[in-house]
């Protein structure tokens, strides 16, 4: 797709990292499937992936995780 941010680049399939900070916890998900703009580098994630990340983050925080770096796994 055309990048809606810079309006010049095209997005390419790739992977990116997402960092979530919630309360005192910091969670980093690596290798998350994304569409990445080849011009400005903006990363786009599908709703499914965002929701899955949120769910995994809530679970980790509920388990008392304060800082964690993990590989993204599809739900
Ligand atoms: Zn762009």
UniProtKB/TrEMBL annotation:
Alphabetized InterPro entries for the sequence: MqsA/HigA-2 (IPR032758), Znf_MqsA-type (IPR022453)
Database matches in Pfam families: MqsA_antitoxin
Transmembrane residue ranges: none
Protein known as: Type II toxin-antitoxin system MqsA family antitoxin
Lineage: Bacteria, Pseudomonadati, Pseudomonadota, Gammaproteobacteria, Methylococcales
């Amino acid at each position: 797709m055309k990048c809606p941010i810079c309006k010049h680049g095209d997005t390419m399939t790739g992977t990116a990292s997402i960092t979530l900070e919630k309360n005192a916890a910091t969670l980093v998900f690596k290798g998350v499937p994304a569409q990445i703009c080849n011009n400005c580098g903006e990363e786009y994630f599908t709703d499914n992936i965002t929701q899955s990340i949120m769910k995994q983050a809530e679970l980790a925080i509920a388990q008392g995780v304060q800082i964690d770096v993990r590989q993204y796994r599809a739900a």
